[in-house]
Write a structure and sequence with these properties.
CATH class of the largest domain: Alpha Beta
Strand order of the largest sheet: 8-9-10-11-13-12
Bound molecules: manganese (II) ion
Structural class: alpha/beta
CATH topology of the largest domain: inorganic pyrophosphatase (n-terminal core)
Helix content: 40-55%
CATH architecture of the largest domain: Alpha-Beta Complex
Radius of gyration: 21 Å
Low-confidence stretches: none
Length: 443
């Protein structure tokens, strides 16, 4: 994979040297935005020029409109591997730096296809789209950008008690470049900026079952412990910090562990995971320009606005968690599902499904399928757990196979996937997914 990335690097360098404007297309989640950040920073540092577009999915019409643009080099980040066939007929050089399941079509000569799956590496856990993108620029002496690949890995939930596989190599690069620091600490969010009870409720990963997504319960626990809930964790005395730490460790031992931080960064972006959460909030609000200016280093107005978005997003999440705690999920044999026609919930359904299980608001013995109605279609977000994947669950395959049956489309990773289906197909689709998952677990 490193060799393939090295070849892609040579292609990129060639076009920077020729002063071609490089066409960058990336995904709208935290991983895709970090991936765009890695490539864009590298091009900028080398004195090159780029033009970036962020899209939620690489649809055929996106590729069609790119084919009218006549750039000499297209770079697709965190997407593209599933679209090798249409990309084969796009003119110009192409770099695909992705980690999603690739299509069976073999890439033609003009495409440098950097994807872990092509080399037998696990793309759902061992490397992100930002990671694949980082490998492309790594040979240009860009170890100081490695941390951004880890921001992407956090965004795609690839951190679990440490980084694995290629992410480990990327971590070593980041440490070597001294842009990243690892130390032990409490892994709750906004430790210096939010009152402790909010930090607890807003902490999604690692989850604090009973408290993640529940402001009231978090406040009550701190009151019972006799500590003031209204001040940020960073402002407590050392002794009180120890008491809090011990109490939270009882809820989830993983809440104390390695914290990855950027010592030279402003406080709001100092923690890698929060950096990722802020990009995610920008992406979910379609504020792609904002996200790009943050990854490119703008720290004034953009960051302020991004923090506002994060605040709104967290409020929405709290409402969403209240909703799933109150209503629960509808149980089928091998899956459970959430359905909503609410405008706000549709953008957070994937997070509600995933964190709902990990924070034990929902049971975690079956994958959760979140369904949001968008006019005539339904947006589907599926989430599983590592143990379910080990039992055979592959949501990417299940959602892809089930959605094509009803004229929709879908795909993704074994543990997290999505699809779009016509509204009328809802019930039949759910039953088909239920059957497929049952089969996966029995075979
Ligand atoms: Mn990704």
């Amino acid at each position: 994979m490193l060799n393939r990335a090295g070849e892609a690097c040579d292609v990129l360098k060639k076009h920077i040297e020729k002063d071609n404007i490089i066409r960058l297309i990336s995904h709208n989640d935290a991983d895709g935005l970090s991936a765009a950040g890695v490539i864009a920073n590298a091009i900028k540092e080398e004195g090159g020029q780029f033009h970036t577009t962020i899209v939620p999915r690489l649809k055929k019409d996106v590729i069609r409109s790119l084919s009218h643009e006549k750039y000499e080099l297209y770079v697709f980040c965190d997407m593209g591997s599933a679209c090798i066939k249409p990309l084969n007929s796009l003119k110009g050089d192409i770099i695909v730096a992705d980690h999603h399941q690739p299509s069976k079509t073999v890439a033609k000569e003009h495409i440098s296809h950097v994807n872990p799956h092509l080399f037998g590496i696990d793309g759902s856990r061992d490397i992100s789209g930002a990671g694949s993108s980082y490998l492309v620029v790594r040979n240009m002496d860009k170890k100081h950008l490695a941390y951004m690949a880890l921001v992407g890995a956090f965004g795609d939930m690839q951190y679990s008690n440490g980084f694995n596989g290629v992410n480990q190599l990327i971590l070593n690069d980041a440490l070597e470049s001294k842009t990243l620091d690892v130390h032990e600490g409490l892994k709750i969010v906004s430790k210096a900026t939010e009152p402790l009870y909010k930090s607890m409720a807003y902490t999604l990963n690692p989850p604090l079952p009973g408290y993640t997504g529940n402001l009231e319960a978090s406040q009550e626990l701190l009151e019972r412990m006799g500590v003031s809930y209204g001040i940020p964790f960073a402002e407590f005395e050392e002794e009180e910090k120890d008491v809090i730490k011990r109490e939270l460790e009882k809820i989830n031992p993983e809440i104390f562990g390695n914290v990855y931080s950027l010592p030279h960064e402003v406080p709001a972006l100092r923690d890698l995971e929060e950096y990722s959460a802020i990009l995610d909030a920008c992406g979910k609000n379609k504020e792609y320009g904002l996200a790009l200016s943050i990854v490119l280093g703008e720290r004034d107005k953009s960051l302020e606005k991004a923090l506002e978005l994060q605040k709104t997003y967290r409020n929405e999440l709290m409402k969403g968690f209240e909703w799933i705690a109150r209503e629960g999920a509808v149980q089928l044999n091998s899956i459970q599902y959430l359905y909503s026609e609410d405008k706000v919930l549709k953008s957070i359904m994937g997070t509600l499904a995933g964190v709902g299980m990990s924070a034990k608001i929902l049971s975690d013995d079956k994958p959760v399928i979140g369904l949001s109605r968008l006019h005539k279609d339904i947006k589907v977000s599926g989430r599983a757990t590592r143990p379910l994947v080990e039992l055979g669950v592959d949501l990417g395959k299940a959602l892809s196979d089930a959605s094509v049956n009803f004229g929709g489309q879908g795909g993704g990773h074994d543990i997290a996937a999505g699809a779009m289906i016509p509204y009328e197909a809802k019930d039949k689709f759910l039953h088909l997914v239920d059957e497929i998952i049952e089969e996966q677990m029995n075979s």
